[in-house]
Write a structure and sequence with these properties.
single chain, 509 residues, alpha/beta, elongated
């Protein structure tokens, strides 16, 4: 039986490796606080959140499928917790039953499997009770189909039959075995019988007055005991293997249930924290239409989780335009909004809600970041060389539909060279169907893109009031420079510079 709460036709791959760029993505977007909030101190939820957030689905149908399940579990939070806790209890049973762990003989495997399965039957019965209680209350396809399968396949007559078979396999009195004789009286065709049926058949062909043939083994005859154990092991081998596989299948089901429900429970942890902070969120709309990004009051959820104060959100409308260029005053919220776009994309493709009042976005096969790095004394070459090497690695894995977030790329060189590099790169990527969101302080680059690619681009700029105050809100508008030295002069010296002092466009040294 499959869980299928994250995909309609398969269970999530719990053993897959995170993408190679996962560490850069988490670090650049500041996603660590988001993952910690989702985990809520649970190490397994931390692992689930980290993998599922970074490696979501590029299929809009799968995104919608997950969102529907999440809506149900938000409406019934106790359901998610009950399923997660029950799955954990079922998986712990394997550790509780220690007998047979060291011994690998068929008899030991059978005894251990019987004990484990007896406890698992109780868990399956409790699972059926949960499914029956919520079956009529959920609306998502994932939960409805899961509960239908559980109620139909794990009905009480079936579970009672399983318990009867387990009771039989305990072999409390004896182990009825038959075999045929082969060449040289060697045994063959070993067969294990049901004890009750075997006794009935014995009465049919063996008269009550017939002498009983009994072999008594002396207490110290170890070789004879070993021979009997080998005989028993050979007879129960097939049954032990079959029951062991059944135990593994049931445990595999509960492991899948724990993982997939755990992801939704982590989402509930995040939604509860955002609700506590009064932060808005919504379920976004995922589309396969290329180059779509439309959002209202989109904000950086990581920043909101790190501070108790309000975080300003901004709007963006990039329907059919693969390039978004963000300019404006330093410390005006440009990089913050870039992280907001990246985190929202990850959350959307994971099937989660996003930190906005409304959002519609294209899914992407891969999301990559190219953020400026701090000076590293261990670097064997210059910062520009390091930037170009990282960008080369990124370009090698980009493909049509990919999304690249660029934060002050090529800032390690001068205005002219950096603008030329950026222009060539962004032209090539957008021509190949890659979406780019770029924060830049290179005024020449932004103005060249506005002049030559206005029909393919959206330009946002960080608001700055006449007195230098930053609103941290981005608005649509022509590119702006970032050189507001007067603001720095005012903040340091507390007064406006004179006209002579700013004749060259900069405050005095």
């Amino acid at each position: 039986m499959k869980v299928r709460l994250m995909f309609p036709d398969a269970d999530a791959d719990r053993d897959r490796h995170p993408p190679a760029h996962a560490a850069d993505l988490i670090g650049d977007l500041g996603a660590e606080v988001l993952i910690e909030t989702m985990a809520g101190g649970d190490r397994l939820l931390e692992r689930i959140s980290r993998l599922e957030l970074i490696d979501g689905s590029p299929d809009p149908a799968a995104v919608t499928y997950r969102q529907d399940v999440l809506r149900d579990l938000i409406a019934h939070p106790s359901l998610a917790r009950d399923l997660y806790e029950l799955s954990g209890e079922a998986l712990d049973i394997k550790q509780q039953v220690r007998y047979g762990w060291v011994q690998k003989t068929p008899t030991a495997v059978l005894n251990r499997s019987v004990q484990v399965m007896e406890l698992l039957v109780d868990c399956l019965r409790r699972l059926r009770g949960i499914a029956g209680a919520y079956r009529d209350d959920v609306r998502s396809l994932g939960l409805r189909l899961l509960f239908e399968r559980v109620c139909e396949e794990l009905d009480e007559p079936y579970l009672q039959q399983v318990e009867e078979h387990l009771h039989t396999l305990e072999f409390r009195r004896d182990v009825p075995i038959s075999r045929r004789f082969g060449a040289g009286l060697a045994g063959r065709d070993y067969l294990l019988h049901d004890p009750q049926e075997f006794r009935r058949s014995m009465l049919d062909w063996m008269p009550l007055t017939h002498d009983r043939y009994t072999l008594v083994i002396p207490p110290r005859d170890d070789a004879a005991y070993q021979a009997l154990e080998a005989l028993r092991d050979r007879a129960v081998n097939d049954v032990a293997n079959a029951l062991g596989q059944s135990v593994d299948d049931v445990l595999g089901f509960f492991a899948a249930l724990q993982w997939e429900v755990g992801f939704y429970l982590a989402c509930l942890n995040l939604s509860a924290e955002l609700e506590r902070r009064g932060a808005p969120w919504c379920f976004p709309s995922a589309t396969a239409t290329p180059s779509v990004l439309e959002a209202r009051t989109l904000y950086d959820v990581g920043l909101r989780l790190r501070t108790e104060g309000e975080v300003v959100g901004s709007d963006v409308d990039a329907q059919g335009r693969p390039l978004i260029v963000i300019t404006g005053a330093n410390q005006g919220g440009k990089s913050t909004f870039l992280r907001a776009i990246g985190l929202a994309q990850l959350m959307l493709q994971a099937g989660m809600f996003v930190a906005a009042e409304a959002q519609t976005a294209s899914v992407t096969p891969i999301l990559l970041t190219h953020f400026k790095r701090e000076e590293d004394r261990t670097m064997e070459s210059g910062k520009l060389d390091e930037e170009l090497r990282r960008m080369s690695t990124i370009v090698d894995v980009l493909r049509p539909g990919a999304l690249l977030l660029s934060n002050e790329s090529f800032a390690a060189t001068n205005e002219r060279e950096g603008s030329q590099l950026g222009r060539d790169l962004f032209d090539a990527l957008t021509d190949c169907g890659v979406r780019v969101v770029a924060v830049t302080h290179l005024t020449e680059l932004a103005r060249t893109l506005q002049r030559d690619r206005a029909d393919q681009s959206v330009f946002l700029r960080a608001e700055r009031q006449p007195d230098g105050t930053r609103t941290f809100r981005l608005t649509a508008g022509a590119p702006q420079g970032t050189g507001y030295g007067v603001d720095l002069y005012r903040r340091v010296f507390g007064s406006e510079p004179t006209a002579d002092e700013t004749a060259d466009g900069m405050p005095p040294a």
